[in-house]
Amino acid sequence: MKDQLETIRQKAIAKVNEARNLKELQDIKVAYLGKKGSLTSVLRGMGNLSKEERPIVGEIANNVREAITQEIDEKTEILEKKAMEEKLESESIDVTLPGRPVKVGGSHLLTSIIEEIEDLFIGMGYEVREGPEVETDYFNFEALNLPKGHPARDMQDTFYITNELLLRTHTSPVQARTMQQYGGTEPVKMICPGKVYRRDTDDATHSHQFTQIEGLYVDENVRMSDLKGTLNRFAKRIFGEDRQIRLRPSFFPFTEPSVEMDISCKVCNGEGCSVCKYSGWIEILGSGMIHPNVLEMAGYDSEKYTGFAFGMGPDRIAMLKYGIDDIRNFYTNDKRFLTQYHHAKGGAV
């Protein structure tokens, strides 16, 4: 049995030295040291030995096991190192290759326009407010001097969810909510950008969903001249210092008096062209002094407080500022269009 053990040791070590990879080495370990391995098979015959021979053979068997295990461990370390080197070689990076450019996104044009307008009004002391897009009939209409049955409601084709719930048709409800929140005792100076919805047929200049920014200023002794000065500053900041404005009488249920603001056409500088329909002016927004009824419904004393409101469409502003002729371009997610305006924010064009 001693000779058998020595033969197993020699053969096992020779096999270990010949192993070319970790799988072959594992197979050798199982073949000699496993439950059905050569060494285990020999040890099972120790029961036939005398009491004197068993300790001697047992010691030899342990030495053989240790010798084979040591050889396998050393070979494993060598093969693992070799496998790692081969892997690193196959996965090496050629640093001389040119890098792949990373495509950097940018703000959507409407987002840039809205942020530019927000920056302007924040600098004038306005705060930015938001409100729900699913609105109540009261805040969307009644609190703005549009009671049920008022003919002006027909001008805003509304998406009704229930008789009292709807998709807001303008951001004016945020103004009504803010005035009520202030309780009729504090000044309000705010703008409210957001999405609005109307049952309109989509075409080059109309959309069932679009954006609005409305502004509100309520305090003692607020005058029409304050409104004009605010709008004049807005027009020059957004469209260029050479833009001129004019105010035309108009009608809105929630303002009295009401005016619409035009800016001088930048294409013809007021001389008249096809863009401005040969008038020299382009309509840009509606505004006016807040109707006393709106102030009273919000809790303000209309004898003490006055204010003005204005509303504009960032979609229309972007179209005029950058010469875009189809509002649908803002919402169809065509990258060929959107990537032209990644750096459009700021400055007049």
Automatic annotation (TrEMBL):
Residues 73-340 form the Aminoacyl-transfer RNA synthetases class-II family profile domain. It catalyses: tRNA(Phe) + L-phenylalanine + ATP = L-phenylalanyl-tRNA(Phe) + AMP + diphosphate + H(+). GO terms for molecular function: ATP binding; catalytic activity, acting on a protein; magnesium ion binding; phenylalanine-tRNA ligase activity; transferase activity; tRNA binding. SUPFAM superfamilies: Class II aaRS and biotin synthetases (SSF55681), tRNA-binding arm (SSF46589). Mg(2+) binds at residue 256. Belongs to the class-II aminoacyl-tRNA synthetase family. Phe-tRNA synthetase alpha subunit type 1 subfamily. Tetramer of two alpha and two beta subunits. NCBIfam families: pheS. HAMAP family: Phe_tRNA_synth_alpha1. This is Phenylalanine--tRNA ligase alpha subunit.
